[in-house]
Amino acid sequence: MNEFRQDMISGLWVLFATNRARRPGDPIVCEALDKSKDVCPFEDLEISGNKVEKTYLNKSGDDWLVKVISNKYPAVDRSKTTREPKQIKADFFNVVEAGGYHEVFVFRNHDKVLADYNSDEMAEVFGVYRDRFHHVVDNTSSKYILVFTNYGIKAGGTLFHPHSQIISTSVIPLSAQNSLRDAEDYFVKNSQKPYDKMIEWEISEAKRIIYENEDFVAFCPFVSRVPYEIRIFPKDSTSHFWKTDDSKLPDLGRAVSTVLGKMSKALKYPDYNFFIHSAPVYDKSDKFDDYYTWHIEIMPKVEFVGGFEIGSGVYINAIDPDEAAKLFRETEI
Questions:
Q1: How many domains, in total, are found in the chain?
Q2: Which residues are catalytic?
Q3: Any idea what the CATH number is for the domain that residue 278 is in?
Q4: Dihedral angle at the C-alpha atoms of 202, 236, 174, 324, nearest 10 degrees?
Q5: Which residues are named in the active-site annotation (predicted)?
Q6: pTM
Q7: Which of 142, 145, 219, 255 has its C-alpha lying 20 to 30 A from 202's C-alpha?
Q8: How far apart, in whole angstroms, are the C-alpha atoms of residue 313 and residue 330?
Q9: Residue 25: per-residue pLDDT
Q10: Residue 148: helix, strand or coil by DSSP?
């Protein structure tokens, strides 16, 4: 079953993808991910029955860097990708078919995690993300696309082999809708992009900046939801990640490799999630450029979410983001 069900009160969408219960390495029952290459389904993609959608060579062209495969246990159904998903009758609940793309970026080196990639390698990785993002935009009617990485069991990782994922959907998740609405409201009231204001203020404060170059800035946000949260923003303030110019990729690679390297060394390679948040693409317009900026969020899993957070929706963070950023700045890599 692949379908979205919407809560009639909160508007929250929940994606039901029951086939994913069959995927290997369920983090609920695993105490540690198996690092052995012998049992890794990503070591030989053909033998393990994975369909390779595209192969990306490394910069020198002497070997592959990333292979993009169709997820064997997709959360969404590619055959049902449409801008207006089919409604499923369910009394007074809003239920629609879950169409979209679900692919995996498989990195060649089994034992080399993303945090150990240098800036040039990271720039290539983000070029691959952007290319596949662009492919989904051009070849589907999806409304929303998310690129993400789950590193470690606490972050929802099920396999040790380094990989990222991309999922596109025919609905816009509630959190994305709220972010867009709030950003637009701020713009209407203040005639300024909220993210521009945030970045200007963080740079002027200078307390929470971890890394900055000509095109990107990375910091622990003043309102960090979890300990050691990191955000990376482009300074050109564009709304769509897939429109990032080739000339920006080297600086993006330097920013991401630096902060991932510092975070991993300072926190001893914690489990983490990272996401690329980009404006919806359902109409391919630039209307979001007035008030939204694409960005990267990195969320280390150093504490468990407890009952208060789950019950109230209010995060409890025991780490001052000023101190988190100071730790990262002082960490040499």
A1: 1
A2: 163
A3: 3.30.428.10
A4: -30
A5: 163
A6: 0.91
A7: 145
A8: 33
A9: 63
A10: strand
